Known about the structure:
metal ion binding; 4-stranded antiparallel sheet; ATP_grasp_subdomain_1
Amino acid sequence: MGEIWIMKRTVILACDLYDNKTPELCQEWESEETIRHMEETIQKLGYDVTILSHPTEITSVLSNIPPQTRKDWIVWNLVEGYHSPSREAYIPALCEYLAIPHTGSSAAVQTFTLDKYKTKLFLKSLGIPTADSQLILNPMDLPKINFPIFIKPNGEGSSLGIGENNRIDRIEDWSSVAIPLSETFPSLLVEPFLSGRELTIAVLGNQGNYQTTPPAFVDYPGSVYSNLVKSKESFVESLDFQVPHALSNLLHSYSLKVAELLGSAGYIRLDFKLEKEEVYLLEVNATPGFSSIYSTLPLLWEKTGKSYSELLNFCLELGFEEFNHHFRYQYAKDRNL
Length: 337
């Protein structure tokens, strides 16, 4: 009998590449070092790997994969873009339309969670504790929340647009902060300033079968988790896993509920903050970083005793599982296969 030939699955790392020449808006993009390390790790798992980092290149390659083999490809969604409120949904929407598996959540979840204000309103209405917030589209509109307040971009991650002066203690200082910020970020979010410690936790899995990582306190210099802390050139945050048992259980419960309510897939990372011993959800990140060098999610995962390689493998398996079982792919399967 002849040998049975089995086609290797192929992973496409679809990414925006960060370097020192890119502007601040590109802070969420991954470094070439990170992408190369992901490539090497995934290759050792037995996959073929291709790196694509230009929109025309990505769309051309995906659309030219033969329909009958698309189930054996998977796109790792690392495209962050900038400005657009749907930018984290570019890859999921394209893959869903072409019937190609991808990692992470659907386009619907990506777009929704990128809007911090809408996400907080939705989750608060269903029992997840969040601080009061106000959406600011015109910086001439004054805040209606009691001072001290905190102002930040409504649709950004990696602490973009955030520094020590985002805390505002009196109304007289409002314009000097809000107006310059609105020139780059037209949608702003105002919340009470929460002075307690920040916490983070990740949820992995597909709907109906989620698991959380251990939570951790996020410690950093100063009183604000600024873009200097998240900068790839000066990543100085540290994780403290000494979270009290009761608080850990509470974060576990809230995080699983958030994942179910949103219908997330693959992975999300959630940030919380304490204030007078109460915990409040800050935001949900549906496209977290996967750098083994400067990203938080791999550190949370490795606290479970599992390796970076196991993390990447698990996320890929979840992507294929989502493709095989979720109804959102059915239209594309019927049309393309």
